[in-house]
Records
---
Amino acid sequence: MKKILGVIILLVIAIMIFHNKLLIKISIIEREIYVEKRYAEDAEKELSMIKMKYEQKIDLKSFEKEMNEKKKMEITTDINYFSTEKETEE
């Protein structure tokens, strides 16, 4: 009877130790999954921002092309928005 009780106690202790090791492994894996999910979410946010910028550029290019074709307008970078008094006198 004592042998059976001793074997059962050892078996319970072994199961508890094994269970504890599995819980530690699972928690480590869950932490890694959490970190990877955060990385994936950040990458998705960055990708959506890049897509938005790209779509805005495409819209501007199509608008520029349409204005050039229909109304013969062109985009220039030679506009002076501000001028000094010396420049206006000359």
---
Amino acid sequence: MKARLFSFLTMMLVALAAQAQTTTITWTASDGRTAPEWGTSFTKNGVTMNYKEGQADYCEFYGPGSFTTTLGNFTKIEVTAENLNNFGGTGWSGNINKKTWTGTPASSVSWSGDLYGEDNFTIVFTIEASSVDVTGLTLSQTEASMTVGGETLTLTPTVLPADATDKTVTWTTSDAAVATVADGVVTAVAAGTATITATATNGTADTSDDKTATCEVTVSNPTVTANEGATGEYWATYYNGTTSFTADANTTVFQAALSGSSLTLTEVPNREIPATKAVILKSSSATITLTPASTTETLEGNELQGTATSITNPGNAYVLNKTATNGVGFYKLSSTGTIGANKAYLTYGASLTRSFFGFDETTGIEMPTAEVIDADAVVYDLQGRRVAQPTKGLYIVNGKKVIIK
């Protein structure tokens, strides 16, 4: 009997209840008739038929023999032929023209007897893809430092091997009060440490074959670096779009308002910084620590604006700065200048030509007075305009506020 390679005619993937993939492969008589003369096996598309001998012209194959596959496990084999009277074996059932094998899924199925195919020869193989178990799991980071105030971190899992059947990863945190996690995105909540655990379960409830990976997350309260103004004074601005804070005991918090061309600072009670509100910070330390806190402050009349991300000048912006001449204040930002993340700024009408706003805190900052000033002193009014011959009033003289009487 001749044996020829059978053609792969159709392949179809369907999802089973267990989410395993199945492949259906059909061989026909035209393929059998092209098999090698008097061969003892042939392979097509991952399936091999082994037999004692055969005659290809009649699609006749004599056993004992077997079907094997590299695609996974057979779950069903259906053989249709002219005569299958003595064809069969363990797991096989049917009649003279059609025999079907079903049983425990296996990559090799034996048969005995003879297969007389003729024109009716058809074999349909149903194969369940082999399950490839997860052997390892890693994360893009094993340690991370985060800051309270809306910061997030995305952890990327890598499941091994790359062709694992089920690469689903679940996420947990050891302390949701410190950091939460959802689909690998970690959100800082409060100062402390938390372990973020990723688990690959192989898609089963059995935990014995789970693979895990962890990331140790340390969450800190935010700190603000302030710039020195007068001796012993440090100034900064702050904005957070998600979290309210209280500044440390060394710090005074101000809101700001423009009245005409004058800028007035008003102290915020209890050093509170409400979420979505921009403020000015004055401290006796160059480092200001903020602690998450609830607040009822609304900062009515506050004209400071804030940004959570670095932005280019939105137009006519003034930012906190200091010069040797005028001291600390809000200075006009160049058109291409940037405002840093979590910073506050002021905006003013486009027609304004002044270069800076000086501070006049309603809480009362002691300012020196002068009967006369040096002839070579550089004098500005509070609108940032240079004054050649100052009269009585409040001025900026050599970077300091002075009342001229």
